[in-house]
Amino acid sequence: MTASQKRWLGLLLVALGFGLVYWRVAVKLASDWYHDDNYSHGFLIVPLAAYFVWERREKLRKIPILPSAFGLVVVLGSVAVLVAGILGSELFLTRISILGTIIGVVLFLFGWQHLRALAFPVAFLLLMIPIPAIIFNRIAFPLQLLASQFGESAMGLANVPVLREGNVLILANTTLEVAEACSGIRSLVSLLTLAIVFGYFSDPRGWVRTLLALSSVPVAIVTNGFRVAGTGIAAHQFGAAAAEGFFHEFSGWLVFVAAFMLMLAVQRAIVRLAPTASEALAPAAV
Predict the structure, then answer these.
(1) Mean model confidence pLDDT for the chain
(2) How many CA atoms lie within 13 A of 282 on its CB side?
(3) Contact, 124 vs 52, CB < 8 A?
(4) Which of 38, 113, 244, 246 is the most exposed place for a label (fewest CB within 10 A)?
């Protein structure tokens, strides 16, 4: 067998072994993507990561293959994390071990230079893993209070009488609770993913991509606050039914579109203030 054939055979065996070890974890992860709206974007993460790897194919061909034995240590450590997660019924550990195993395999078969070239696609896979419940709750509840405060202030400016008690908004004709699903964390996670992908395709500069990703946080918080305020105003004008059913679901999609438009505006503002070299040299339109 040629060296290339041996390498492909090795990759096939590794893929089969990976599937045997992680198929239960993968099935449960896909089930959570399907049932948890906070992570429904997870189905897009693996195909996008695969595309990012394929996009680097020419660069990877030019990098010399220098396998590192340390990769085997990383793989064994990741499998130990998997076992600990299974024994402790901790889903996050079983899932994060997937990334550790991938890193170890790349190191063991190809070396450090290949791992550096694949750093972004591998790191991107983090977005497919749901946040641990203890961290999720620490983020969600403050966001609930923030959205409630924002909604109270906005409704006050619109001359809508409202009394806030924690995350509960008491109106004259109904009471609204800013529940966990309305905290904005769903749009925050999805918008962060969208911002990273959008930044990757829209600008080659790392600092611009980072700034776009960071901008998704305040954008998600502000737009969700407006959603809570709009729901409260609609409930005040048309009754409690306006805060439920179709209007509630439609407002969620509308807010997400508005958030993306704001993020697009941020990107255009950055390009205007700091254009790339090619844009700076391009002739102005007449």
Answers:
(1) 84
(2) 9
(3) yes
(4) 246
The tens digit of pLDDT for each residue in 193-204 reads 889 999 899 888
pLDDT at 286: 41
Query: Sign of dihedral through CA atoms 268, 272, 273, 276?
Result: positive
**Distance between CA 25 and CA 97 in Å, rounded?**
10
> How far, in Å, CA of 151 to CA of 197, rounded?
30
Q: Six-digit token pair at 60?
A: 């990877």
Angle at 136 between CA 226 and CA 253, to 5 degrees: 35
> 163: which strand partners?
170
Name the packing angle between helices 133-157 and 206-238 (round to 10°): 60
Taking the C-alpha atoms of residue 90 and residue 216, their distance in angstroms, rounded to an integer, is: 29
CB atoms within 10 A of CB 38: 20
Sheet holding 175-177, edge to edge: 163-165, 168-170, 175-177
Q: Which helix (H) or strand (E) holds 169?
A: strand 168-170
For residue 170, list its beta bridge partners: 163, 175
Separation of alpha carbons 82 and 88, rounded Å: 10
DSSP 163: E
Helix (H, G, I), strand (E, B) or coil at 204: coil
Half-sphere exposure of 42 (CA within 13 A, CB side): 22
Q: Read off the DSSP letter of residue 176.
A: E
Helix ranges, 65-169 (H): 70-87, 91-109, 112-117, 119-124, 133-157
Q: What is the pLDDT of residues 94-140, one digit of tens each?
A: 999 999 999 999 999 899 999 999 999 999 999 999 888 788 778 87
* N-to-C CA span, the chain: 62
Q: Could you give the CA distance from residue 160 to residue 169 in angstroms, rounded to a whole number?
A: 11
